[in-house]
Amino acid sequence: MLLLAYWGLFLSTVCYVALAVWRVSIARHHDGALYLAAAFAGMASWTGAVLTDIPSLVTAGELLRDFGWLAYLFATTRSYDQQDDVRRTIQRFTILLAVLAVVRTALLLAPTIIVIGVEADRLIFLATLVIRWTYALVGIVFAHYLYRATASSAASGFRLIVVALGVVWAFNLNLFTLLLLGYRQALLLSDLRGVLLLLLVPAFALAARRKERWKVTLSRQATTQSLLLVAIGSYFVIVSTATRALIWAGGHAAELAKLLAALSLTLLFLAFGFLPRLRARVKAVLVRNLFEHRYDYRSEWLRFSSTIGDRTTSALSPEERAIRSIVDVTESVGGALLVAERGDRLILAGTWQWPAQSLFTHALPVEAAWLESLADSARILTLDNIRARGGNTTEDATVPDWLLAERHAWAAVPLVRSTRLVGIILLGRPRLDRDLDWEDFDLLKVIAQQVAVHLTDAQGQLELEEARRFDEFNRRFAFIIHDLKNLVSQLSLVSSNAAEHGANPKFQAAMARTLENATSKMTTLLARLSSDRAPAEPTLSEVRPAELLLRLARENRPEGSVGVSIEQECVIRADEEQLLEALGHLVTNAIEASPAEAVVFLSLTIWEGMVVIAVEDQGCGMSPDFIRKELFKPFASTKQNGFGIGAAEARALVLAMDGELDVVSVEGEGTRFLVRFPLISSTDSGT
What we know:
Elements (H helix, E strand, L loop, with lengths): L1 H24 L7 H20 L2 H25 L4 H30 L4 H32 L6 H26 L3 H7 L1 H7 L1 H9 L10 H30 L1 H24 L1 H15 L6 H12 L9 H13 L4 E7 L3 E8 L11 E2 L2 H10 L3 E2 H7 L4 H4 L3 H5 L3 E9 L2 E9 L9 H39 L1 H20 L7 H25 L11 E3 L1 H10 L7 E5 L3 E5 L1 H18 L6 E8 L2 E7 L7 H6 L16 H11 L3 E7 L3 E9 L2 E2 L5
Parallel strand pairs: 8-10
Antiparallel strand pairs: 1-2, 1-6, 2-3, 4-5, 5-6, 7-9, 9-14, 10-11, 11-13, 12-13
C-alpha cells in the first residue's frame, strides 16, 4: 500500500507539472491560461510536499493548491459577462473557502511557532479536522452550484473541471468524516489520495483543451439544492464534532451533552415542522438575499397548471382548485370565490380554508359601476391600503363596505375574460404579512386570466351537460306524454257520454265531476310536459301576495298541512300566475320534506322596504355545500325519487320578475326559503 501511495503521488506531481508548463506555453494565445497553470502548479506543489513528508511543506503546498484553484475560479468568473447576483454568489463562496484555508494554515503552523501543551495540541488537531471537513463540504456545494448554474453548451470544459474538483472534495469529505469519527479506514483513504489525483489527470487535460468562455445563469433549483446540502452537511459536522468531543470528555458531562444535543435538534425540527410562520420568514429572507426575482416563473406556471387541471382527486371542486391556484402564489391562509351575477351582486361560489363564512352566506350587493371598473382595469385590490386611506380616492370609494369590514380579506383578485368580470377571488392574510409589489401584481393578473378562462369553460361545459340531460329528460317522457294525451281523450269522451245516462242522477253527477276534474288536471300536466312549450315572459302587474298565500293554503293541499301568517297587507309588482307557480313549487317541496304530521308555515312580512315571503318547513335541512353547489341546479334533490326541478324553476321564475330568492337551512332542524320583492304599497290591517 505504501508503494502504491508513493508512486501515485510521484506520477501525479510529474503530470501536474507538465500540465502547468503546457498552460504557460500557450498563455499568449489563450486568455486565462495562466490561472489554470497556477492551479495545476498548486496541485503539483502539494503532491510533491506530501512526498517529502515535511509538515510545514505539506501545509504550504496545501495552501498553494487551494489558492490556485480559487484564483482560477474567481478570475474566470470576473473575466466574462455574468449576472451580478451570480458573480456575487461565486465571490462569497471563494472568500469563504479562502478564509477557511488561511485559518487552517494558521492552526497547523501554530505549534511550530509557539510552545503549547498536550491538551491544546489535541484541540488544535480537532479544530483542524473540522475546518478541513467544512472546507470539503463547502467545496462540494460550490461545485454543485457551478455545475447546475453553468450552461452546458457554452462551458463543457469548465464543467468538466468542476466535476473533477467535486470528486476531490467529495473524497476529502469522506476522509475527514472518518477521521473525526475515529475509524481506521481513514488511513487507507489518505494513502489513496495520490492515486485519485493521478486518475483525474486525463479529465483536467481534456477540460484544459476545450473552450473556457462560459455563461452562468442563476438557477433557483441549484441554489435551493445547494442550501439543502449545506444544511445536511452542517448537521453531520455538528454531530461528528460533538461525538468526538464527547469521547474525549467522558463521564457525566458526556451524557448531559448528548441529552442537550438531542433536545436541541428535536426542537429545531419541530420548529420548522409546526411553525409555518417561521418557515415563511426564513423563505422570505432567502429569496430577498439570494434571488433577483421573488418568483421562479417557470415553477409557478407548472404548479398552477398542476393545481388547476388536477382532476384525479375528488377532494377539491373546480372552484376550490381555482381558489387554491391563486392562494398558493402569495401563500395566503385560505381564499373565497365570489361570482358576479346580474351585474349588481356577488354570490359565494366556493371557499378553500376560509376561516369566516358567515359574511358570505347570502347575495352580496355591489355597485354595478364598481364591477364594470374592475372588468375594465383588472385592478388587484390591496384591501389594507384601502382601509388605511379611508376611501378618499374615487376608486376606493366604490369598494363595498362589507368587503372592507371582513378583516381576514387581504387582497381581491378580479377574474376577467374578454372585458367580462367572471368573479373575484378574495385572498386571506399570508403567514408572513407583507405588501404586494409589481411582481405579485404581474403574476396574479396572468394566473387570474387563466382561472377566468377555466371557470367560464367549466360553466359552459356544465350548461351543455344540463342541456343534454334536459334532452334526455324529454325523450324519456315522450312516451308518457303520448299515453297521457290518449288518456285525456278517453276521459273527455267519458265525460261527454255521461250525460246520456240519466237513470241514476247522483251517480252520473259524481262521475261527471270526477271526469271533469281529471280532465283538467291531465290537460295541465300535458301542457307542462310538452317538449315544445316555450317559457312565457312574465307580465308584471300589481299583485297582492296575501291573497296568493291564502289561495295556496286552501287549494290542493292536505287539510291543516299549511299555516299562514300575514303581518300586513301589501302590494308588489310581479306576474301573478308565475309567482303562484314558484311559491307552489316551494310549498310542495316543503310538504314533501317535512314529517307526516308537520305543518309548513307561510309568512308575509315587510323589512326595510322589501316584501318577504317565507316558506318554512320542519324537514331534515340541507348542508351548506348542497345549497351552494346543487340546490338550484336541475336534477339535484335530497328527496328520494325527486327530480330536483322545483327549486331551480322557482328561482328562475323569481329572478325573471326582478325578485330575489335566498335559503337558510340547518341540518336536522329545517329549511326556510325567502322570496323578496320591492314594496309598492301597504295597509295597516293584518291577519
